[in-house]
Write a structure and sequence with these properties.
Blueprint lengths: L2 H9 L6 H13 L4 H14 L3 H12 L15 E5 L7 H10 L5 E5 L9 H6 L10 H11 L1 E5 L6 H11 L7 H13 L5 E8 L8 H17 L3 E8 L7 E3 L1 H14 L2 H17 L6 H13 L2 H12 L13 E5 L4 E6 L1 H10 L16 E4 L6 E2 L4 E6 L2 H14 E4 L9 E5 L1
Parallel strand pairs: 1-4, 2-3, 4-5
Antiparallel strand pairs: 5-13, 6-9, 7-11, 8-10, 8-12, 9-11
Helix pairs in contact: 1-3, 2-4, 4-9, 4-10, 5-12, 5-14, 9-10, 12-13, 15-16
Bound molecules: uracil.
Length: 427
């Protein structure tokens, strides 16, 4: 099969066969198809799109480029969640132990933050001693013994995605629904899952800025998951303000612990319970979403989920009881009176980057102690001089963080309309 014919076929808007996609992806992963031909095909896919069959083939062949988890001898269902990323999104830290308390196993492969959205692994790195570089064998062993694990992708998992994602980044082909679907789903399906839930976010702090685009991505992800034999559902959730109050690394771990002690903010709990409930129903651990939520709340009230998180942290070398440094606090005040009309959540992410809590470039070292607490939400009324946020930052970066934070908040004379957090469920 000639790669040039395959590129030309896609360029002209024709659907590729499974064999053609397989030939291309295997050749690219093995190095026999060069970057320039893969770039041309990625651009053709970006411009022409892919059918559901083509997207499933792409995912399948990307998955086949590397190792995948197998779970012989374990009959506990394997489940996971993927979020397209947001500001203050610490759901994974709650969800993994809560599900592990409901007789499910969660072998979660997670990522670091790049750009404005934070990464789960960076938050976990704020815990002294915690290891996010487990081998596949170590991940398997922690999953079997504790019930949940959160670690980074190993070299052997979906190498085609690692290569292709880096190429897409420099060829303006990241925002393509089939390419995003192949990338996300190949990594999640490599975990050997029975059920998957997707949190597809839209809004100022999300990868997908509009609800329509998020819906399109959610439908593509769900269709692909189902075609590959994994029970998959998605929630469309609003990311026009941070999830919970805390944004940063150590402070998000603190908020997670408070939430597992029963003191979580309403929006964080609503999102976490809804995502977890999808997986309990998909694996017949509960008969309805409401029944699932009651069971999940029990894991918090009994203290079992908090205990499970400590177990997971200890199994990964960390010490949850060791103190985590938080930078000196100072208040940020409203410059005028009004209603909180909009929050540019991406700018809030940039505020964390300005305080060294996020990366400007891959490989940048982080200061886990920085971040902020939002003390207002969309629609709240504030008076001039009233605190809108609490900043945690060393003196040399506090001003930069404060300026970005204030620039993100728009005040109005009239109360704005505020929509629901979870706008739809795609199955
Ligand atoms: N996240 C991924 O893992 N892949 C993409 O292509 C986009 C977001």
């Amino acid at each position: 099969m000639n790669p040039v014919w395959i590129i030309a076929k896609k360029r002209d808007g024709e659907a590729l066969s499974d064999a053609e996609i397989g030939h291309f992806i295997a050749g690219y992963a093995a190095g026999s198809i060069p970057d320039y031909q893969m770039s041309a095909l990625a651009m053709a896919i970006y411009l022409q799109g892919m059918t559901t069959d083509e997207t499933a083939s792409l995912t399948d062949h990307m998955l086949a480029s590397g190792a995948r988890f197998e779970w012989p001898g374990s009959n506990v269902p394997k489940v996971d969640k993927h979020s397209t990323g947001g500001i203050g999104d610490k759901v994974s830290l709650l969800l993994a132990p809560m599900l592990a308390c409901c007789d499910l196993h969660v072998p979660m492969i997670s990522g670091r933050g790049l750009g404005a959205t934070g990464g789960t692994l960076d938050k976990l790195d704020a815990i002294p001693g915690f290891r996010t570089d487990l081998s596949m064998e170590e991940m398997q062993s922690v999953t079997d013994s504790v019930g949940c694990v959160i670690s980074g992708a190993t070299e052997g998992l979906v190498p085609a995605d690692r290569k292709l994602y880096a190429l897409r980044d420099v060829t303006a082909t990241v925002p393509s629904i089939p390419l995003i679907t192949g990338s996300i789903m190949s990594k999640k399906l490599a975990e050997g899952l029975d059920a998957l839930v997707l949190d597809v976010k839209f809004g100022s702090g999300a990868f997908m800025k509009t609800e329509a685009l998020a819906r399109e991505l959610a439908e593509s992800l769900v269709n692909t998951g189902k075609r590959m034999g994994v029970a998959t559902t998605a929630l469309l959730t609003d990311m026009n303000q941070p999830l919970g109050r805390m944004v940063g690394n150590a402070v998000e771990v603190d908020e997670t612990l408070a939430a597992l002690e029963g003191n979580g903010p309403d929006d964080l709990m609503e999102c976490t319970l809804a995502l977890c409930a999808e997986l309990l129903v998909a694996t017949q651990r509960a008969s309805t979403l409401e029944d699932a939520k009651t069971k999940l709340q029990q894991t918090i009230h009994s203290g079992a989920a908090l205990e499970k998180l400590s177990e997971m942290v200890a199994a990964q070398g960390g010490d949850l009881a060791a103190s985590r440094k938080v930078a000196p606090a100072s208040d940020v005040f409203a410059p005028a009176a009004g209603y909180i009309a909009s929050i540019d959540a991406e700018r809030l992410g940039e505020a964390v980057i300005a305080m060294r809590g996020g990366r400007q470039q891959m490989g940048d070292a982080l200061d886990y102690s920085t971040g902020f607490e939002m003390v207002v939400r969309l629609g709240d009324r504030v008076e001039a001089g009233q605190p809108v946020a609490r900043l945690f930052a060393p003196q040399d970066v506090a001003q930069a963080g404060r300026e970005k934070l204030l620039a993100a908040i728009v005040l109005s004379d009239e109360p704005p309309p505020v929509g629901p957090l979870i706008v739809d469920r795609i199955e």
